[in-house]
Amino acid sequence: MTSTADGRWRHHPVDPCNAQYHDLQWVDIDGDGQCELVTGKRHRAHCGHEAGEWDDLGIYYFKWTGEGFAKQVIDYGPIGTGKGCGIHFAVADLRGTGRMDLVAPGKDGLSVFYNEGI
User: Fold this and answer.
1) d(CA 26, CA 41)
2) What's the N-to-C CA distance of the chain in angstroms?
3) Which of 15, 19, 44, 74 could join 59 via S-S bond, C-beta 3.0 to 4.6 A?
4) What is the pLDDT of residue 101?
5) CA neighbor of 43 nearest in space, from 95, 87, 94
6) Residue 107: CB partners within 8 Å, gap ≥ 6?
7) 78, burial (CB in 10 Å: exposed 0-12, middle 13-18, buried 19+)
8) Total domains, the chain
């Protein structure tokens, strides 16, 4: 959301076509000096009782364009192939490269994604 000149809020959908996103972090994931919204989709977040719980998994970042958010894929695929994020994930420069890497726990294990330069 952004505020208008009169102080009201304006709604900006980030990804209205998917559900089950968990943990959101604002971090400069691509090194351009601007923070992006980094998040991941969780598998069976509520024990199979909500829409989207069995959809393909993914880890994404959303870049603000000035008008809306552009979705960028870090990882995506069906359960067992694609990785999502559990309740929490971590973003840090794990190798001292100056680029932010991502550690993603999930129901199918723990994964590290090294940022090789976005």
Assistant:
1) 16
2) 26
3) 74
4) 98
5) 87
6) 42, 43, 44, 86
7) exposed
8) 1
Cα 103-104-109 angle, rounded to 5 deg: 120
Q: Is residue 118 part of a domain?
A: no
Run means of pLDDT, 10 residues per run, the chain, 118 residues: 76 87 92 95 72 83 95 89 86 97 88 92
| DSSP string across 5-47 | TTS-EE---S-TT---EEEEEEE-SSSSSS-EEEEEEPTTTTT
Place of tokens 């991502």: 102
Residue 2 domain flag: no
Query: Hunting for tokens 């001292």 — which residue is that?
Result: 96
Rounded to whole angstroms, the Cα distance separating 46 from 10 reads: 30
